[in-house]
Structures are given as C-alpha cells and as structure tokens.
Amino acid sequence: MSDRWMSVEEIAGYLGVSKDTVYGWITKREMPAHKVGRLWKFKSDEVDFWVRAGKASDECSEQSRQSAQESDERKSGNKK
Predict the structure, then answer these.
(1) What is the percentage of the chain residues whose pLDDT exceeds 90?
(2) How far apart are CA 73 and CA 71, in angstroms?
(3) Residue 10 in 3-state DSSP?
(4) How far apart are CA 42 and CA 7, in angstroms?
(5) d(C-alpha 16, C-alpha 34), whole Å
(6) What confidence score (pLDDT) does residue 68 get?
(7) What is d(CA 55, CA 61) in angstroms, rounded to the nearest whole number?
(8) How many structural domains does the chain have?
(9) Alpha carbon 45 to chain centroid distance?
C-alpha cells in the first residue's frame, strides 16, 4: 500500500501546519480532500501535487496578509 488515506491530524503534521489551517483550505475548496462519512481524508500524493503547484503557499500568503491587516486595524482602532 503506497499511498494510504490520512486524517486531518496526520496531514496537518505532514505539512507542518495546524488543523485549523487544513480546515480553512478545505472550506475554500482549495485543498484536495475527500469526505468519508463525517471525516475528511487525504491522499498524500494528491496533497503533494497541490503543494508543488504552489496552492499552499498562495493560501498561506493570503492568510498571513489578512492576519497582518486585521492586526494593524486593531492597533489603529479601525474595524471592518
């Protein structure tokens, strides 16, 4: 068995990100994921291809940009 199914926890550890980040990628329908019953499952070869295509870094950059913007707005007292 060369490419077994991985859980959210396993794929988060595999990629070195939090489970929240994985769920965010799933919600935006960016990350290749398969719903099996109530659980999300992943194939590492699909996720590897997605990462190599630059999708993870684009999403991380967008999340970082949004977090920085929200932090700046909180510091300046502005609200969205």
Answers:
(1) 56
(2) 5
(3) helix
(4) 6
(5) 20
(6) 47
(7) 10
(8) 1
(9) 16
CATH (domain of 24): 1.10.1660
Q: What is the rounded distance in angstroms from the CA atom of residue 5 to the CA atom of residue 39?
A: 11
Handedness of CA 45, 47, 48, 52 (dihedral sign): positive
DSSP state of 31: S
How far is it, in rounded angstroms, from Cα 32 to Cα 6?
12
CB environment 40-79: b (16+ within 10 A), e (fewer): bbbbbeebeebeeeebbeebeeeeeeeeeeeeeeeeeeee
Domain that holds residue 56: 5-76
Closest of 59, 37, 36 to residue 47, by C-alpha = 59
Residue 66 pLDDT level (bands cut at 50, 70, 90): low
Global pTM?
A: 0.66
